[in-house]
Amino acid sequence: MNQIASTQCDQSLRKTIKLLEGKGITRPRDYLLKHPLPLSSKESIHEEIKHKVAEALACPLTAGDVALEEENERHVFLSTGCPGMDELLGGGCLIGEMTEFAGAPATGKTQLAFFTALTTAAADPNATILYIDSSNSFSASRMSQLFTFSDRFDFLRTKGMNAEYVLSRIKCIQCPDACKLLDILEELDTKLAEKSDPFVSQLNLVIIDSVGALFSPMVGFGQTRGYVVMMTVGHMLKTMAMRYRFAAMTLNYGVQSDFRGGKGSRNAVSGPVSDIGGQLRTKPALGTTWSFVPNIRLFFSDINDSENAGDDEVLSYQNRQGLITALTKRRVVVYNSHRTAIGSERILFLGSYEVMSFPDTTNTGQWNRDLFVKSENAQRHS
Amino acid sequence: MPMKQMQRPVSTLNLDQALRTRLHNAGYRTTADLKDVAADSLAQQLKVSIDQAMSVLKQLKRDPLVSVSALTALTRERQRSFVTTSCKAFDEMLGGSGVPAGRVTEICGAPGMGKTQIGMQLCVNAQILSSQGGEHGEAIYIDTEGSFIVERVVEIAEATLEALNAGKDSQDSQTIEQFLSRIHVFRIHSYVEQVALINQLDDFLTEHPKVKVLIIDSIAFHFRQNFADMGLRTRLLNGMAQHLRRFAEEFDLAVVMMNQMTTRVTRGQGSDNDSSVLVPALGDSWGHACTNRIILSWQYEVRYAALVKSPNLQECTIPYAITSKGVRDVPGHRPATNPRKRLLPT
């Protein structure tokens, strides 16, 4: 923040500023924090100083109708590459917001993140994507495979977009710990403000995989500093996303919640997921503190085997190149959101190079499978 | 309106409590406040040594960002080295050539599944000469359970050498002593030792750049007993996982950690609906620690390995065998019969 002394003012004011500095007040913020001042009555504060302080800290106000207009203009969504997931997210990953995918291991979070990155790069030939990898899960060969074989990109491929062009606009940074993440975000902020780096200026999407890996070693009972770092990251990422117009995406762990309420357990945060599955309840990691950071959270979980009893056929999908892949099913639920209905869910089908979803969760018979293929085809053609 | 730079609180710097408090008391709130401060004047203000002041300011000087485009990463990934398991089906499950460098692979299994055997086999295989299709590297074996048996390693090494030299004149062959001298074994007796070792491994890895594989057998042992504070356990484990992932990436080595299995009882609707399943130990959140996860299990008389988690490989199940010679294929097994493995025309 600027020093008060650096503001333009005349000689008489300088004197007062000197006086303030003598009391350890050098910035507008100090002035606010220490007011009423321990200045004696005769050294009354110059009105103009107050004015300067107010100016320095001013926050522009926007009328409601203007805000609505601005917001409508700003509602730009990035597609996840899966129509069903986009629906759950109320249209996709909103630019300026933070979207989180949380869930147990091997439930498709990284795959959906890869798809989002590819779809974003494919949808806008200038868009760039930054992938901050803290769990060694970034795989360029996997991304190249997805782009080359997935039906999602069929049309684009025939239009001549190749994997090299898409991959060259996705960058990855290895980030072993949270301190490094702060450094990355600071540098990113500098570059975005300077508009010096063409890659950074075209940034449409920043993915952090995963915040669980970064913060779980440092948060917990009594770990104040860990929380400071975690919330600073959250704050910086959200502010930057809003200011520089990109979508932020974080991946997070799923942990078992202590729902039995035994000795020493805290009450599980009540969320839609706690009631699903019946046996094991899981929730996103990093606790209540972090839960306020993402604007929207999806929770990924395995589908309980008992529900599928008698349905041990392997679902498979033949894509346009004639490749057949087996599909595995995952459940995706809206965990927190301010835009879409909390608790609404989809079944996610993960294939070797596809992600698909189906809204109906009750019947998994052949009839539904046909419908599913039809609806997916319709969505793809529309 | 000009864009203001982001404010990062000084409390997020990696400093000890006393130094943070001094900074705070001296009126420094954000890293921007520290921008144009000289080390000597900072030392004076904080009443600390000049070295300490330097350590604060050093943190503000960041290394430039090292990011690679996915295209570059693709070329790098294709050049990535592997350590073979001596079992074709196993190697294929892991992407073709074995356990990948740059990744953390977790192998979970009940006692007797051959986790230690796989670990010892990998230690030997990491040393195969480049002329014989290997990496000619070294291996680190972190033994927490006391199950590393040298006699067994000798057996495996002999069998491996024999297989490699079969039908060739063994001019550039290695001796068993050479094999053994390149396996660095650390015997660990408590979780404190384990955490300490992992924290200090940086130096060892810098001194031994040829290390290609790092085995921890098992990661869970000392963490499954005498732990009252589960929060502490989670933090320690996740911190350790962070280090291991970094080693894999920075030193381009394959990290393989063995994990035990535990029984999980799930409650059904009625009281007689209780059932139990075998799951990897250390809880749900530990499942995120590794990049690839493999679960070993018996099916009748055959051992099976299932890849259950991977960002880039297909989930699949393959049979493998543990013989007197080490890890091998199940005789007569035809690979790629699994429908889930029909993929990837490369």
From TrEMBL, chain A:
Gene3D superfamilies: P-loop containing nucleotide triphosphate hydrolases (3.40.50.300)
Keywords on record: ATP-binding, DNA damage, DNA recombination, DNA repair, DNA-binding, Nucleotide-binding, Nucleus
Domain RecA family profile: residue ranges: 74-257
One of the Pfam families matching this protein, by short name: Rad51
UniProt subcellular location: Nucleus
Entry GO MF terms: ATP binding; ATP-dependent DNA damage sensor activity; four-way junction DNA binding; single-stranded DNA binding
Major localisation: nucleus
Biological process according to GO: DNA strand invasion; double-strand break repair via homologous recombination; reciprocal meiotic recombination; telomere maintenance
Entry similarity comment: Belongs to the RecA family. RAD51 subfamily.
Protein name per UniProt: RecA family profile 1 domain-containing protein
TrEMBL record, chain B:
PANTHER family: DNA REPAIR PROTEIN RAD51 HOMOLOG 3 (PTHR46239:SF1), DNA REPAIR PROTEIN RAD51 HOMOLOG 3 RAD51C (PTHR46239)
Key word Endoplasmic reticulum present: no
Domain RecA family profile: 79-261
Organism: Powellomyces hirtus
This protein's record includes keyword ATP-binding: yes
GO biological processes: meiotic DNA recombinase assembly; reciprocal meiotic recombination
Gene3D superfamilies assigned to the protein according to its UniProt record, in alphabetical order: P-loop containing nucleotide triphosphate hydrolases
A Pfam match: Rad51
Listed name of the protein: DNA repair protein RAD51 homolog 3
GO molecular function, one term: ATP binding
Keywords linked to the UniProt accession: ATP-binding, DNA damage, DNA repair, Nucleotide-binding, Nucleus
One CC-aspect GO term: Rad51C-XRCC3 complex
InterPro entries: AAA+_ATPase (IPR003593), DNA_recomb/repair_RecA-like (IPR016467), HR_Repair_Mediator (IPR052093), P-loop_NTPase (IPR027417), Rad51_C (IPR013632), RecA_ATP-bd (IPR020588)
Chief place of localization: nucleus
Compartments where located: Nucleus
